[in-house]
Amino acid sequence: MASKEIHVVATFKPKADKIDDVAKILAESAANIHKKEPNTLRFYLLRPKKGNELIAVEKYADAGALKVHGGTEYFKAMIGKVTPLLAAPTDLKICNFVTGFEGRPSKL
Amino acid sequence: MASKEIHVVATFKPKADKIDDVAKILAESAANIHKKEPNTLRFYLLRPKKGNELIAVEKYADAGALKVHGGTEYFKAMIGKVTPLLAAPTDLKICNFVTGFEGRPSKL
Asked: Is the Cβ of A76 closer than 8 Å to some Cβ of chain B?
């Protein structure tokens, strides 16, 4: 039976001088998510060594958890604050898990 | 002190009819990595619901672990098998962790 879990990879494209500001806003989001969204199972932010992007790696227990995430006041506030700081729209990829291991120790 | 860990997000762009073949080859890679690379702390494959891509989310204990990964025979064999099945070069992002939580339960 296919898993109900939903994975998201979101690539933010801040304006050249705004990447630290965007990272700070997303860090606030991460703290809210960690505290208030028990069914958001993973939410971390990566900064590629090259280029001007921030990548959020996310995992939700199910479609309901993703819906809760997108409906929160702090999510809407984050979008409001971040959007003017972006050079291009965020690349949002909603994904299914294919294979692999998500951490150690772990069964494959 | 900044973490030595290295995160990678690699987006594969298979030819339209080859995505399942690429997924299968990468699944073999994941099994090898899980078994033979104890310092590769995360390697899983996601398939966006839209488009024709596969995204590998990866985490290495340090630069040495990433080097070991890239030097293995099965990695080179995977590259050899996958490359002819791709429509465009793989988008490889080598990243630093910024913030967030990688799983539950977890401290932020």
From this structure: no
